[in-house]
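TOKENISE THE FOLD
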Amino acid sequence: MRGVGKEQLLASAGRHVSIIDVRTRLAVRDLPGHKQKVFSAVARAGSGSLLTASSDVAILWDVARWTALRRMHAGDNTFVAVCLGSAQGHIAGVFANLGRVCLWSSTSQSDEEELTLPLLHGALCKPKDVALGRSSLLVLVEAADGTAGKLRKPVIFCWKLDTTPKRHKICMARECQRDVHQ
């Protein structure tokens, strides 16, 4: 990753995130703000942004100054996965609570937009992962009905992201042909 004209490396241990100068191998900056173990650090090429996430908060960083641009708190919930992307500059997060997917803007401080997952085989969905494309949002889910008698394959839901907030529509739901392992 390049920032401030130097080659830099992002390192994370527990709840600490540090920026390391590759040439000197010294920490040049600590990125504070996580109270739980950091499980993700995602950069989008050309965006000048980095997204770090722990179960309690996702933080969007400006890589030129290493300052926090935005903090998305999980509240009484827990983040499972986050991503940064899309042509509209979205940030997406999925939560441990059943059926909860949120979108945020990386370019403004607007409120989160919650998308509701439909029932899967008559049961609530448990989000597992999330990805953003140019104009779409993909969420990998599994049924959360608690029945051990019939194993079901995970399903991928796809939303077409509209340029107007709150106008996003599910355009596809497909069962995975193979088991998806973490």
Observations:
- The CA atoms of residues 14 and 161 lie 34 Å apart.
- Residues 1-5 have pLDDT under 50 and may be disordered.
- The radius of gyration is 18 Å.
- The chain has no helices and 16 strands.
